[in-house]
Design brief:
Among the domains are: about 140 residues, Rossmann fold; about 60 residues, no CATH class. The chain is about 40% helix and about 15% strand. It contains eleven helices and eight strands. The strands form two sheets. It has a six-stranded mixed sheet, sandwiched between helices. A hairpin with a 3-residue loop joins strand 7 and strand 8. Helix 2 runs antiparallel to helix 3, helix 2 crosses helix 9 and helix 3 runs antiparallel to helix 4. The longest helix has 18 residues. It is globular, with a radius of gyration of 22 Å. It starts with 9 loop residues before the first strand and ends in a 14-residue tail after the last helix.
Length: about 300
């Protein structure tokens, strides 16, 4: 049973990336509870998911559309992918239930993009792990900044959380596990099958319950690009008969364009965050703050700024 002090609280649910699956699934569970409960009900006031994996047959081809539209692969490779791949049959686990010609074209595209581009933020520089880990072991300051972002954070984080004194201070690893901390673990059994789930029916259910739903995209992400998310939101709105209540237009943060946004039926919002990565707050913390402030307060993103250019 929920703690009494939270019974009257508004509940806002949000996450990024694979949260495109687990946040709508969590919301669905809570809605089912509300429908069956004769007592306590969750007061869900909004759901927001960023660069979310929603539907493989649209999100996956969007990656290669993004590569092509940003000059990262050639016309020939892009056409080969379009010709050889049936993304309606695409599965999360390799070899993705695709033909050899499709997998070969995708492999060539990925090879051309290469390892020297961060797919989660294509405008960032990359960190060289062998150099940064060596310097970290020597306790040197190694932060590599690109466009205001520490591109070596992943390696610094791995090093930091495996320091015995840090684990001791956090009361972590009290059982002295024989392996180090990492973002993902082979110890746990992950299944690729969950990634095949089409999340759009759950999004539809959320909107049908009159819960504001925001889907936002950092526009420098090629892993789950805005090209797929924007299309899926528009198609969902069309299927639900939701009219455009905010035409596609700029939104502002501190006198600059924060991104672009549109809204359907006063409930379903799509927004981009200009210059942001797969994890929006990582690359654009202030614009992320502006977006979340509007979401939490139940307000639309600001569409005007002052002073106007030309005055």
């Amino acid at each position: 049973m929920p703690f009494p002090e939270y019974r009257s609280s508004s509940l806002l649910l949000s996450g990024e990336s694979y949260a495109g699956h687990y946040i709508p699934q969590l919301t669905d569970v809570l809605l089912t509870h509300n429908e069956k409960s004769k007592g306590f009900k969750f007061n869900i006031k909004g759901v927001a998911i960023g660069n979310p994996l929603l539907k493989l047959d649209r999100d996956v081809p969007a990656t290669y559309e993004y590569f092509w539209s940003h000059g990262m692969i050639s016309d020939e490779i892009f056409l080969a992918i379009n010709k050889g791949c049936d993304f309606e049959d695409y599965t999360f686990g390799s070899p993705h239930n695709e033909s050899k010609s499709c997998n070969d074209a995708i492999a060539e595209a990925n090879s051309i993009v290469g390892q020297y581009v961060n797919n989660y933020d294509v405008i960032l520089d990359v960190c060289y792990p062998s150099i940064v880990m060596q310097e970290l072991r020597l306790r040197k300051y190694v932060t590599k900044i690109s466009l205001g972002v520490d591109v070596c954070m992943s390696y610094e984080r791995y090093f930091y959380f495996n320091l015995p004194e840090v684990q001791h201070a956090l009361h972590a690893n009290r059982t002295h596990l024989p392996y180090g901390w990492g973002m993902c673990s082979d110890v746990l059994n992950y299944t690729d099958k969950d990634g095949n789930i089409n999340i759009l029916p759950l999004l539809r259910r959320i909107v049908e319950h009159k819960i504001p739903l925001w889907i936002f995209s950092g526009d420098q992400d090629s892993v789950v690009p805005l090209l797929g998310s924007r299309t899926l939101v528009r198609e969902l709105a069309h299927d639900m008969g939701l009219p455009v209540t905010v035409p596609y237009s700029t939104w502002f943060r501190k006198g600059q364009v924060g991104g672009w946004t549109t809204e359907y039926g006063n409930l379903l919002t799509f927004a981009t965050v200009r210059g942001a990565s797969h994890m929006v707050p990582f690359a654009q913390p202030d614009r992320a703050l502006g977006l979340f402030r509007s979401f939490v307060l139940g307000q639309r993103l600001p569409n005007t700024t002052y002073p106007p250019i030309g005055d």
